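WP5 quarterly update. Target: Fibronectin type-III domain-containing protein. Source organism: Paenibacillus mucilaginosus 3016. Length: 996 aa.
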Amino acid sequence: MKKMWHIALSALVAGASFSGTGIHGLTASAAGEELTVPPGNTAFINDSFNGVTDPPVTSTSTVKTFAGYTASVTGPNGSVSIAASGKDGVPFPSEALLIRDEDGSNASGTVGSGAGATSVTKGLGSRISDGIVTVEQDMYFYGPNNDISRGRNVLKLTGGVNSQANTSDTIIQVDLKGGKIAWTDTGGIYTNITPANLTNAAWYHLKAVINLNTFKADYYVTNLSDGSVVGELREQPFYNRTLGSQAGDTAAITAFGASTGGTTAENIVLDNIQVYKLNAPPDAPSGLTGIGGDRQIALSWSPAPNAVTYDVLRGESASGPFVKVAEGLTRAAASSDPFRDGGLINGQTYYYVVRAVNPFGATDSAPCAITPSGERPAPVPPQNINVEARESAVMLKWDAVPDAATYTLKRAISPEGPFAVVSSVIPNTQTSYYDTGLDAAATYYYTLSSTNIAGTGDESQLLTANPSVPLTEPADLRAVPGSKRVDLSWTGSPGAAVYQVKRSTGSGGPYTVIGSTYGTSYRDTGAVDGQTYYYVVSAENVSARSMNTLQVRAVPYTAPKGAPAAPTGTVTEAAYGQIVLHWDAVRDASEYTIKRASSYNGPYTTIASTKRTSFKDTKVTNGSTYYYMITAKNRYGAGPASEPLIATPSRVIVVAKDGTGDFTTVQAAIDSVPQNRQERTVIYIKKGIYKEKVIAPVDKPNLSFVGESRSGVVITYDMNVTYHPGLQTATFELRGAGSTIENMTIQNSAFPNKDTNGVKGVGQALALYVSGDRMVFRELNLYGFQDTLYVEKGRQYFSSLYIEGTVDYIYGNGFAYFDRSEMKHVGTFGGYTTAASHDQTAVNGYVFYQAKKTRGTTSLKPYIQQYGKAGTYTGAWDDTWDLELQGVSKSNSTVYLGRPWRPYGNVKFVDTWMDAHFYAAGWHNWGKVENETTAVYGEYGSTGPGANAQARVPWSKQMTTEEANALTVQRVLGGQDGWDPTLTGVFAKPPAALGD
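Structure tokens (predicted):
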């Protein structure tokens, strides 16, 4: 926006220097006044767009320039022009450049066919090949239905890479992707600058500081409504990540650009575009500090903005003169790897200055006085050391030692030693170490010490760890409530010595230990009648523990003597305008009381009594979820209540291939639902094969797709990236929040996945794409090859999922919990199970709980054999893809558990059985070593031939029992609204599909 927007904030920061920071130069100017760049810089682009009178450029315009920019418009509904307000009608503070594109198709189908793009470019009038180049611009985005999830290249600098002749190589590129601002590289890998999504129809400021000497860029994004920094990334590589890895690499910037061509945000608005190059000396180095040792000193300092190299100077007084002792240092010295100056005289004070240098001059730091001494003591050992034993690994954490430069970790397999050095160069900025590749059957002993210029200090006390395999958790936990008590029983764990009993008043924990026992039963006598409790049990022995069991629920109740037991065998059914409950007869019961609530935890109100073992509730509102409890009574009184029963009556649309329903296609049923209806609607699908591409858009939330049969209802299509480039290939696109799918098969039959016997492979071909919050998937089959399931965003719960694929067949940025599901690798070649793309804010991304990882021939084989045909997207079956016929071993170790599609990919496997087709290393960094410091990959209690904690890559983690126990459905997906997807209950069916 015009600088006048920043008057209020500028008062807070007046006089401050913002070189190398994320805050824009906030100086006020009147509308139309010439913009100014920061002092000491030369401007190449400096555009405010006030008073521009050029006619708009459209696809049919003869003149292709606008306000000094070359415009390209290829779609009939695109243009480049001046805008004074947003598409929502809210005026801008002043005129701005509108890059309009309303030809990109999106989920709601509101903007055209998907053809066309709009772009602007402007040359810098110079070829900049060294120094510091800064780009600043204000940005505003608008998308239909508040959707700016993707589709915009907001900044691109082009020029030449390693050639003076090149003019169109990309130097840096920043996009609007997934609702966030992100930079991208040549492999199409995005790294988020803003951790959270931007807001539709709001102004933001982007600043990019590009160092052509180091091939690194710093990025900052500011919200212009309040001046807050909403995203910051420093020291990021250029678009071509390998720049700088070879001697003689060069990069030159010649032009600025921005473009559309995506499928959601319809407009980019840009204002106050500035491209300028530093032509002044660097800032002074700060944070200069040092320590003296025996006839030597060690110096460290913070990087100086705009510095290219550093010189170190020494004098014998604070005013000099100073003599260079080093020059041309290419980086600032860290305390863990300091600059050392030797040959000094102990007891004499020396004064040091660090000089920052660039092509425009040099700037000195303030002097730092240091006195070398042979009497300086070595640092004390680290204190408060915490040792966490994990399977085949140990995590050590400690408090920082103020004057330590590095830490040394030693390890032995007996307390007497010998001790071997694990690492002697742990920097002082690191106060933890993950020691992996250990023998789970051994006990390990550790010591830690600190080192600085005076030497290495004493070693810490002896530390002990047992990186043993976790025990198997107890099974079949049962809870029987009584009068002010709950009786618990379970099946024991092999090797267990004692069991810990834990309780919580909230579903999913956290749980508190209330007692321990050597047996397999426990009576909780501290329970209160009427209070709902959730119990878990874990096992322990002297060296190992198990994770918690699945929780059980119990409500203590003091029943009159002779009262009947709680009803069991409950069945719940729902239809339009009714809910039907069934239960088994209870011995000695004379009647039953039905209570109902509008929430799981009540309060429950009596709505009926009956002598029968069923009840039909017709006093319900369609779309509302109801909770029931049933109590048996006799002449002595009422017994305890049943477990809560959950159901949602609703409208039901029937889809039947044979014409016996409301519609013959799933898409027609979706189209019949009004936009933005918040009431739940069930689309009940009868048995049949439905060959169609299904799209449930974002403006149709709370749809529930219920199949008559998991294997008998098949939704299939065959779109793929090879023959449909640039389009969403998913057979089923589910975008509306609160939607569910259950009891059916969804597949993408595009075949073959890779080039096979002269037939071109189809590549990426999704079965299911999900992009909405609070989604539930139960008893679902997903068949495909590459990229079978795309969890694009939101929270999703998958229960009893069966999914097949070859490469990256579970991927995306969503938060997904896979509860007791099976993942089957069906490729005859290697691949990756997951390709997560979370950002740095994700505590948990994908969690697989008690999953099963298998390998075998694709379940699509019978379908392809029957319906596949050469020359179509579902090609003719080729026996090359039959693992059994080809003799492909199911245990040939060619598959990875995952690779990070984005740097912060987050995947955890808990209590998962793995076949032997996985590499022992487990995880892949996708060819980028830097991903190893950002990706979050964890396992706990993996079993089967593919489990190998000792051989896993050291940048993945074996989780502790506490970490695994925290990964309950409720705690992973609960969010701020406390969502519990396990309480979804049953959805309505047509009356003809109900039981007796």
